[in-house]
């Protein structure tokens, strides 16, 4: 293919992307610099795998040990894939940065569409910012774990010191995410390569390097269920799902860069599916390797500041662990920058439709970088605020991990359910499930509802006040405030919020009349 033909094809794809976006009601404001591999890259880099597993290993070890790590991961991965497939079908039909709340409005009954759109938009925004906070907090903890290993265990970080590192991570991420779209797109390929190489290195090297006293039998690694928290074994096994659910999460990130992606209606859905599928397989292999090489003293691992760092220390020694851990920290850092990038695009889209406080300030494109710098700074500030929960105790900061899952699942489940519960005419995009759409959607929504309820419970049956699960307080309080803001007399969203608003013709604000939406007669009837 000659250069001229290549340019012609690229131009044709870009025109098609812009025309589809215009049908959805929005003008092209971003540069479409993300190639399909890079669209996949942002979802896969946010998943992160090895550093993500390191961040949440403390959920799996006390709730089953090796069997929970291996079989819990396998079971949860199948359900996560079903959620991703359902979302991919919607993303193919309407690839826009607003994604989830846009789909909710388009597919819901007119009687409820504004409120549901509002709830999904806030849940998605909160979940994205909580994901930034949880990833960057994991990075800060990993940095401190390296310092502890380097000091032969003499250094014990305080919460204030860890928060200081966390603040530094968040602030530097804000600078990175203010770069131009092309630079941000190219970084995703680097992230993918480093992620895969790190995963393969651990899968292969850990069993080779682990001394005999830390190698486990197949019976212990795959069959001996170790319950350290006191819940019945079945329920403990379900609690271990937090590890894969958080790790293989935030895959809606590909949706939020739809307006920066080339051939978005195809690239975005397949990016979601490939990211979940590859992460599921590689993550399973990593967990098998860990289960066979972590020794039998699971209580000691659980009590350590960073269980995976301790496993590496037992296998590779101090110097080897520091080398590997440095790469883990770098990959975790990359995860955080990709997550802040995706979160800022969700915030930009929601403020474009005037739904957030300070929307007029947030909905601005920087004239130099051609990126929404204001929303990057806004999300970074809110992530810093979430990090302050560490001063309320370990369980309070751990609630951020649960919030990032539950709030995103609220945002995922509503548009998937609305497609079949509301009166609408859904026109699928290039990626479609056909007759399997409904059964897969039912599985996805049921799973998300079930796990969301489970993760409101504390980690132990009879917790002390400081060990309570504060997810319901933080998430519930935030969502209640958003609903109160919606119904606020005179000033609330109920008086002015009308869902996604076209910005193509500022003189006559119109919504998209694409077949994805309900027809005019149904809208007038208010059913």
UniProtKB/TrEMBL annotation:
Keywords carried by this UniProt record: Membrane, Transmembrane, Transmembrane helix, Transport
Domain of life: Eukaryota
Any one of the GO BP annotations: amino acid transport
PROSITE patterns noted in UniProt: AMINO_ACID_PERMEASE_1 (PS00218)
Membrane-spanning intervals of the chain: 37-61, 73-103, 115-135, 163-185, 192-214, 234-255, 267-292, 322-343, 373-393, 399-421, 433-457, 469-488
Alphabetical list of Pfam families matching this protein: AA_permease_2 (PF13520)
Keyword flag Transmembrane: yes
Keyword flag Lipoprotein: no
InterPro entries named in the record: AA/rel_permease1 (IPR002293), Amino_acid_permease_CS (IPR004840)
Subcellular location: Membrane
Topology with respect to the bilayer: Multi-pass membrane protein
A cellular-component GO term for this protein: membrane
GO molecular function: transmembrane transporter activity
Protein name: APC amino acid permease
Protein's organism: Crucibulum laeve
């Amino acid at each position: 293919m000659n250069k001229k033909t290549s340019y012609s094809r690229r131009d044709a794809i870009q025109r098609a992307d812009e025309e589809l976006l215009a049908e959805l009601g929005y003008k092209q404001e971003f540069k479409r610099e993300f190639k399909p591999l890079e669209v996949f890259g942002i979802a896969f880099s946010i998943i992160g795998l090895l550093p993500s597993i390191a961040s949440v290993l403390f959920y799996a070890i006390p709730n089953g040990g090796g069997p929970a790590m291996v079989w819990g991961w396998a079971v949860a991965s199948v359900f996560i894939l079903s959620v991703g497939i359902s979302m991919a079908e919607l993303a193919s039909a309407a690839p826009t940065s607003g994604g989830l709340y846009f789909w909710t409005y388009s597919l819901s009954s007119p009687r409820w569409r504004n409120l549901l759109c509002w709830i999904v938009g806030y849940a998605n925004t909160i979940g994205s910012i909580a994901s930034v906070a949880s990833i960057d907090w994991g990075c800060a903890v990993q940095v401190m774990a390296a310092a502890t290993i380097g000091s032969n265990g003499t250094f014990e970080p305080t919460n204030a010191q860890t928060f200081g590192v966390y603040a530094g991570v968040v602030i530097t991420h804000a600078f990175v995410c203010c770069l131009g779209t092309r630079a941000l797109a190219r970084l995703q390929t680097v992230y993918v390569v480093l992620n895969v190489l790190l995963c393969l290195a651990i899968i292969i090297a850990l069993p080779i390097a682990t001394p005999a006293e830390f190698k486990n039998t197949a019976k212990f690694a795959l069959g001996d269920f170790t319950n350290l928290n006191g819940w019945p074994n079945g329920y403990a096994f379900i609690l271990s799902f937090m590890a894969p659910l958080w790790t293989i999460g935030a895959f809606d990130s590909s949706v939020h860069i739809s307006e920066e992606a080339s051939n978005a209606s195809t690239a975005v859905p397949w990016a979601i599916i490939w990211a979940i599928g590859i992460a599921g397989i590689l993550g399973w292999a990593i967990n098998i390797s860990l289960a066979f090489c972590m020794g039998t003293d699971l209580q000691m691992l659980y009590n350590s500041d960073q269980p995976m760092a301790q496993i590496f220390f037992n296998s590779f020694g101090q110097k080897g662990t520091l080398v590997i851990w440095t790469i883990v920290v770098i990959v975790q850092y990359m995860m955080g920058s990709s997550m802040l990038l995706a979160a800022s695009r969700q915030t930009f889209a929601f403020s474009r439709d005037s739904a957030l406080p300070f929307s007029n300030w947030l909905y601005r494109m920087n004239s130099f970088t051609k990126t929404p710098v204001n929303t990057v700074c806004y999300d970074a500030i809110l992530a810093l605020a979430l990090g302050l929960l560490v001063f309320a105790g370990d369980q309070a900061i751990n609630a951020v991990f649960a919030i990032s899952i539950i709030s995103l699942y609220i945002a995922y489940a509503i548009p998937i359910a609305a497609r079949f519960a509301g009166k609408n005419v859904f026109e699928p995009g290039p990626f479609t499930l056909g007759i399997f759409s409904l059964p897969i959607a039912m599985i996805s929504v049921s799973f998300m509802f079930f796990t969301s309820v489970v993760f409101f419970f504390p980690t132990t049956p009879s917790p002390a006040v400081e060990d309570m699960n504060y997810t319901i307080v933080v998430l519930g309080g935030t969502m209640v405030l958003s609903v109160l803001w919606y119904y606020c007399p005179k000033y609330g969203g109920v008086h002015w919020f009308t869902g996604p608003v076209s910005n193509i013709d500022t003189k006559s604000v119109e919504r998209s009349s694409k077949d994805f939406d309900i027809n005019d007669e149904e809208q007038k009837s208010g059913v």
